[in-house]
């Protein structure tokens, strides 16, 4: 009987969302570059890099304050998403799920968790042509901001090229829209 119970416990899957540490660097890098293949052809060719995110750029993002969280299932990191406080908002950054693990709710669980960590407004930037990403954020409570506002926000909170600003959108959570209404 004890043997049987141990077998059942060993078969149970464990699913955890946890903050990444330096030991996760290779997994973060691999997941971003695996998942970013979906963007190839959807974003302008002059904005595409091979690999999509270099190890040096990932280190730069970590040094700039992006804190990654991971969904880990049975010891394997299947998705990552970053969070970065900037001035009076929190940015959701670099949300990626392994290609083989998509459509299993991993991104939604990560985003829901990160939203619990934010006190104020949250913003997300993504490529205009990444319609699947836009739908994902809208399904999870974010709304597109107007085109004039998106340019202002991208320049204020992100450090990206003019070309990326031109070809990107910004989505905001309900707290951002409420804050904006109060300041009018």
Structure notes:
This protein is of the alpha+beta class and 184 residues long. It has one domain (13-182): Gcn5-related N-acetyltransferase (GNAT) (Aminopeptidase), CATH 3.40.630. The protein is 41% helix and 24% strand. The chain has eight helices and seven strands. The protein has helices at 2-11, 25-35, 55-63, 106-116, 131-139, 147-157, 162-166, 174-182; strands at residues 15-19, 67-73, 76-86, 89-97, 122-127, 143-144, 168-172. A seven-stranded mixed β-sheet has the order 1-2-3-4-5-7-6, with helices on both faces. Strand 4 (89-97), helix 4 and strand 5 form a beta-alpha-beta unit. The radius of gyration is 18 Å and the shape is globular. The model is unreliable at 1-11 (pLDDT under 50).
Main sheet overview: 7 strands, mixed
- CATH fold descriptor: Aminopeptidase
Strand content: 15-25%
Structural class: alpha+beta
The tally of beta strands, per DSSP, is 7
Number of helical regions = 8
């Amino acid at each position: 009987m004890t043997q049987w119970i141990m077998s059942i416990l060993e078969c149970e899957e464990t699913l955890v969302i946890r903050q990444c540490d330096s030991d996760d660097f290779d997994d973060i890098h691999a997941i971003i570059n695996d998942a970013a293949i979906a963007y190839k052809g959807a974003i302008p060719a002059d904005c595409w890099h091979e690999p999509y995110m270099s190890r040096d750029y990932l280190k730069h993002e970590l040094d700039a304050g992006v804190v990654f969280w991971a969904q880990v299932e049975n010891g394997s990191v299947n998705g990552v998403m970053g969070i970065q406080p900037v001035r009076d908002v929190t940015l959701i950054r670099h949300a990626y799920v392994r290609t083989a693990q998509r459509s299993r709710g991993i991104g939604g669980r990560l985003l829901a968790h990160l939203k619990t960590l934010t006190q104020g407004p949250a913003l997300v930037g993504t490529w205009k042509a990444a319609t699947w990403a836009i739908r994902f954020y809208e399904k999870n409570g974010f709304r597109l901001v107007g085109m004039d506002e998106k340019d202002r926000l991208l320049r204020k909170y992100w450090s990206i090229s003019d070309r990326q600003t031109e070809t990107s959108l910004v989505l905001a959570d309900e707290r951002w829209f409420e804050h904006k209404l109060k300041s009018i």
